[in-house]
Amino acid sequence: MKVSHKISPQPKDTSHLIASDPDVLNFDSFITFLSHERNFSPHTVIAYKESLSQLRHYLRQYQLCDSWEQVSTDHLRQWMIELQHAHEKSTLHARVSAIRSFFRHLQIHHYLDINPCLGLLLPRKAKTLPKFLSETQIDSLIQQPLRLLSSSQLNPFIAHRDALLLELFYSTGTRISEVSSLSWSQIHPQERWIKIHGKGSKERICPMGQRAIDALSQWQYFLSSRGFYPNYQDMPVTYVFFGLHTPHKPLSDRHIQQRLKFYLAQAGLPHDLSLHKIRHSYATHLLNRGADLRTVQELLGHENLSTTQIYTHVDAAHMKKTYDRAHPRS
Fold it and tell me: Is residue 279 annotated as a catalytic residue, yes or no?
């Protein structure tokens, strides 16, 4: 359903800010709730704060109300119309999801009698199939660090580290935030699995493939030969992935993404692919080779099966292509 277009009120003098009482518009308690009780990731908390700040700015700019208690469904609809002009539907949905959580929190804790989000309808979000790489493309991507090492185009430290990094992403289907902070204590090579601290501080076990085990052994051997592992200058190395000059600090998500962009270019693959696309590839390839949906759900750490079901569409598309190619009357 599409939100009907409505002319937003013109901005008025913003010198008078709504709510002189800091408790009225202060949402620090909600942010604390997200961080400590819901165990949301820092990235998600930041996104929620941005959504709330944007709504608060809108209410102040147009002087629509003096407190959160006075926010109406119409106010939120007008705000959504403004968002539609500048953002994609996916962004609109994310913003409204944050606002719904906030007002639900206020109602549960008796700061509100009526939740203005209850009558709020969102435009239908277009369903898009997740992009993924073929098995051949994955192989080409993962081979890049050691290929560059063999031709002396890459520092051995970086090559062995990044070889394991890419193998681990594809072998376990983990998120970037789950791998960037991975510690040695989470890895159990003899049992061939790693323990992942996922969203909401939920733990899960992810099996490791033989190639990832081999890459791990090479990384450990390299670090030991250089005095990095298990100790470096009489201090234990905690994190599996770190910089050459920062052995006691994990790689940032941004740095890992930059390394991926480099290897995508080396492999001649689209530069706009993200590490999350490797996660999509992991799930799709498992389903294509016969894994059941429930198992893939557990491996990905999805709370709801509906989140995993998007991959059944990918699998169905793969089966249709196979049918069209193989059936004599297709």
Answer: yes
Catalytic residue among 75, 279, 280, 285: 279
Q: Tell the CATH superfamily of the 1-126 domain.
A: Tyrosine recombinase, N-terminal domain (1.10.150.130)
Please confirm, yes or no, whether 285 is among the known catalytic residues. Answer: no
Q: Has 111 been annotated as catalytic? A: no
Instruction: Quick: pLDDT tens for 257-295.
Output: 999 999 999 999 998 888 888 998 998 898 888 888 888
131, 197, 211, 276: the catalytic one is 276
Q: Does domain 135-326 have CATH number 3.90.1150.10?
A: no
Give the tens place of pLDDT for each residue, 76-134: 999 998 888 888 888 888 899 999 999 999 888 878 888 999 888 877 766 666 678 99
Q: What is the 3-state secondary structure (H, E, C) of the chain?
A: CCCCCCCCCCCCCCCCCCCCCHHHHCCHHHHHHHHHHCCCCHHHHHHHHHHHHHHHHHHHHCCCCCCHHHCCHHHHHHHHHHHHHHCCHHHHHHHHHHHHHHHHHHHHCCCCCCCCCCCCCCCCCCCCCCCCCCHHHHHHHHHHHHHHHHCCCCCHHHHHHHHHHHHHHHHHCCCHHHHHCCEHHHEECCCCEEEEECHHHCEEEEECCHHHHHHHHHHHHHHHHCCCCCEECCEECCECCEECCEEEEECCHHHHHHHHHHHHHHHCCCCCCCHHHHHHHHHHHHHHCCCCHHHHHHHHCCCCHHHHCHHHHHHHHHHHHHHHHHCCCC
Burial (CB count within 10 angstroms: exposed 0-12, middle 13-18, buried 19+), residue 103: buried
| Catalytic one of 49, 199, 204, 318 | 199
pTM: 0.65
The question of whether 302 is a catalytic residue gets the answer: yes
